[in-house]
Design brief:
2 copies of one chain form a homodimer.
Chain A (H helix, E strand, L loop, with lengths): L2 E2 L4 E2 L1 E2 L7 E3 L5 E5 L25 E7 L7 E11 L2 E6 L15 E8 L2 E5 L2 E4 L3 E6 L7 E2 L3 E2 L2 E2 L11 E5 L7 E7 L13 E2 L1 E10 L7 E3 L3 E8 L2 H19 L4 H11 E7 L5 E8 H7 L9
Parallel strand pairs in A: 1-5, 4-6
Antiparallel strand pairs in A: 2-6, 3-13, 5-19, 6-17, 7-16, 7-19, 8-9, 9-10, 10-11, 12-15, 12-17, 14-15, 16-20, 17-18, 20-21, 21-23, 22-23
């Protein structure tokens, strides 16, 4: 199995970057990732400063997927996520986010992970729920920072992007130029403190090329099909994810408009991914069992 | 067991309304409720019009809880929700909401409920998840329409307000003057079409009076403590529910500010209740298992 080492990190997704790995469609490979601070927070004395900004959210890549052409879709199947044995949380006033005014002083915490649980404080350990914070393809235009979420994926901080999930991303340039990083051992919807339990690790995955019309970014889990959108305000995110879900139900599942609206109101959940980046991110989760029951040709059609 | 019949409906929560039922703290009683259109949509030909507006969201009440004084908290324990055997969904352009532009034509659907499942369309039945759309107390000031969510509770459309949940509401006037209605057999977070599967039914519940400092409205389920807030935009709702959760963790659980912020980011989920009323509603869900582990005196303190 090919392995991409974590020194191959980038801080932007760019069509001009040379691929550091070439994979065939469906080939299983391993990507090592750095933590969200590029490993620069090593002790509680290392608090967050603006000097760190150029080193925030490294993504490992870009990875060239053979045969992927502009207009195609990339389906990234996440097989396994193995994490380091401690998570880092850096609180600090110049990190921004909605809780900035509540943080009393800059503080970096190291949370031990042992036997599948993470120790949040005295008397409180909870099971880890490893997820990928940043995963995206290179955009067609200007490079996008790995701090940014967007139509290319990126820093979506969607906690459903975990082992067993498939992530559908657009292909804007030849090979797709996939990159990923910013693993979290644990994170709540919103990531309100600007960080989860951030840590390094490795991801085993594969990527396939699809010719299908599906609004992206989209995440498929065991139970849900999830449409994701990012914008400056939550209200604008709401508009985007509802539009994507409606287009999916009418264009792909071929429901009549009124049926699509009813289904969205009954078995669709509007939710939040993160509220701490320059663009916020929301999700709309449709129940797959309902989609399967009414989609004779499968819930994602194409080749 | 006392029974409040569904003809005792109100369309505003008002300090000036005479109670239609008096109950003792902890007394178990039954409240019948009308559907969200006061039963006026009887066939597919009865589409939504503005004439219906005065009859939207009837709540049964007000109910006077003995001993409840301004400044107290009311804890409403929902024991059971029994629903009618069909849900109504009225789509119509003058209902507004984010999906208004996608609705092709006014249409009223009747969804059969049988054996605990609701039939959404051919080949698609799903289990019902009965919940209470409107539950609130009378405010201190001007009467509030049962269409409005707010600090008094009201039209929150929070799907966790279901059998087994406890709802904490403020007491602003003597007796609290509780009212409830707008049951849904099924609804997704957001209620994006302006309706769930709306229906009449009956609720078995009790109400207790607490002397405790807890940000309200708040819902306690088996697994979560949920703080609720309403405002014109989702971004403002976000600010409100994060503030309530932070105040709870620092004032009630006595966490240090930084610890509260970390916990919120790791085991707190920011989510959406509804985006279709004049005020939108969001929720912040904290894991009770985490709170229990660190709250020696119980997660809600007071008498």
């Amino acid at each position: 199995m090919k392995r991409l080492t974590r020194d191959k990190a980038c801080y932007a997704l760019s069509r001009d970057d040379e691929p550091v790995l070439h994979v065939a469609p469906g080939e299983v490979f391993c990507v090592e990732t750095q933590d969200a601070a590029s490993g620069k927070l090593k002790s509680p004395q290392d608090v967050y400063t603006e000097d760190l900004l150029p080193f925030v959210n490294p993504a490992t890549g870009p990875i060239h997927v053979e045969g992927a052409q502009p207009g195609d879709l990339l389906r990234v199947d996440i097989e396994r996520i193995d994490t380091n044995n401690f998570g880092v949380m850096a609180l600090g006033d110049n990190k921004g986010g909605p809780m900035a005014a509540y943080v009393q002083s800059k503080e970096t915490s190291f949370l031990d992970i042992d036997g599948g649980t993470i120790r949040l404080r005295e008397n409180l350990s909870v099971p880890i729920e490893p997820m990928i914070g940043v995963i995206g393809t290179a955009p067609d235009g200007e490079p996008l920072s790995t701090l940014d979420p967007g139509e290319h994926g990126g820093n979506m901080d969607c906690k459903e992007i975990a082992a067993g999930a498939s992530v559908y991303l657009p292909v804007a340039v030849e090979g797709g130029l996939l990159a990923l990083g910013d693993l979290h051992a644990l994170m709540g919807d919103g990531e309100v403190a600007t960080c989860g339990a951030d840590l390094s690790g490795e991801v085993v995955l594969s990527a396939s090329v699809l010719h299908a019309a599906l609004p992206t970014p989209c995440v498929e889990t065991e139970d849900h099909l999830i449409f994701i959108g990012s914008a400056k305000t939550l209200d604008e995110c709401e508009r985007i994810v509802l539009n994507k879900s409606f287009r999916y139900l009418t264009d792909c599942v071929k429901l009549a408009p009124n049926e699509a609206v009813r289904l969205m109101s009954l078995v669709g959940d509007l939710g939040v991914c993160q509220v701490v980046s320059a663009l916020k991110t929301m999700k709309f989760k449709l129940r797959k069992s309902a989609l399967t029951a009414i989609s004779a040709g499968g819930i994602i059609t194409g080749t």
